[in-house]
């Protein structure tokens, strides 16, 4: 609209003078020629008086002036014909300028922006993201050698917590790009998340290959420490994490988290329990609040787990069930630990969580239903009752 108004204003300035009939009367033109001749005669008289012209030169030029004036007065006036000159430009401008503007916009503009009904700054919803990721996945099937496309698809699947699909996409990127540290680590992380966070096997192999290529890679140091800790090599894990700690900004949240993790690993190393001793555990009873029954289906996944009150939020013990089994009773113990050095028995108090996930992902996300007991002492052997009664926002 603004461009149209500016164009209209320009036409109003340019077109009227072109369209207006510029008619000069014949009498007016004769009078103008006479005035010019008189001015020239006065100049000749002045030049004669000052001696710039001789009498003969004066007479000669005066005669020429009289002949020229006579010829001008005898020529029929063409002034009226000039009234139409330039009018053709009006039609050219009126047609050419809008046509040129529309042609340029068709090639350079964006029609989609005219149809936008929401705020341009609004972030796309989960449904929009899923649709875009599905489109990207379809494009990759027709163009399987686009390495950057596979990386983007892997990151997109990882954002959506679809870890098996993310691992497949990163595997394709690795096939095309070879052993690049970032590709190796993204591939390893996706494989681990698809295996409930376990790094043993192929993920650990990829992580340590990345560290060989880039020894100070912070993601590699973190995952390498986790892989060593999972394998029982606590000293090796702490060595990698100390190197990572030195690379982090002093006092940052990330540095504090890694320091807390190392403290738990180094300081909470009790004597191994006798083989015949039963693992220390926590009894938990889980149920779903009646008002939330309509929001779940029998096949939705239920995660029941314990977390440290501070430091890393990795589950110390975790059980996976289905909504159809609720209400249920479980006992969380060291045999359910995800990492050998992060066992339930090494903490005096823990947080208990029961969460229903429609997607089946181990990581908490909006829409999950959850119940929490903020602090439970391991020495307290009473049954802990969790009611899943709220929704994650």
Short description:
With 393 residues, the protein is of the alpha+beta class. The chain has helices at residues 2-19, 26-50, 55-74, 87-108, 126-142, 147-159, 163-177, 181-194, 202-213, 218-230, 234-247, 253-267, and strands at 281-288, 301-308, 317-322, 328-333, 349-357, 369-377, 384-388, 390-391.
List the helices and strands and how they pair.
Elements: H1 2-19, H2 26-50, H3 55-74, H4 87-108, H5 126-142, H6 147-159, H7 163-177, H8 181-194, H9 202-213, H10 218-230, H11 234-247, H12 253-267, E1 281-288, E2 301-308, E3 317-322, E4 328-333, E5 349-357, E6 369-377, E7 384-388, E8 390-391
Parallel strand pairs: 1-7
Antiparallel strand pairs: 1-4, 2-3, 2-5, 5-6, 6-8
Helix pairs in contact: 1-4, 2-3, 5-6, 6-7, 7-8, 8-9, 9-10, 10-11, 11-12
Q: In which range does the helix fraction lie?
A: 40-55%
What is the architecture of the largest domain at the second tier of CATH? Answer: Alpha Horseshoe
Using the coordinates shown, work out and report the CATH topology of the largest domain.
Serine Threonine Protein Phosphatase 5, Tetratricopeptide repeat
User: SSE order, as H and E?
Assistant: HHHHHHHHHHHHEEEEEEEE
What is the averaged pLDDT score? 81
User: Main beta sheet, described?
Assistant: 5 strands, antiparallel
Annotation, overall tally of beta strands: 8
Number of helices: 12
How large a portion of the residues is in β-strands, by DSSP E? 5-15%
What characteristic shape results from the CA principal axes?
elongated
Describe the oligomeric state of these chains in a short phrase: single chain
Tally of individual domains = 3
What would you call the structural class?
Answer: alpha+beta
Instruction: Write down the CATH class of the largest domain.
Output: Mainly Alpha
The radius of gyration is: 44 Å
The spatial strand order of the largest sheet comes to 3-2-5-6-8
Poorly predicted runs: 77-81, 116-121, 268-278
Give the end-to-end Cα distance, rounded to a whole number of Å.
42 Å
Instruction: Let me know the CATH homologous superfamily of the largest domain.
Output: Tetratricopeptide repeat domain
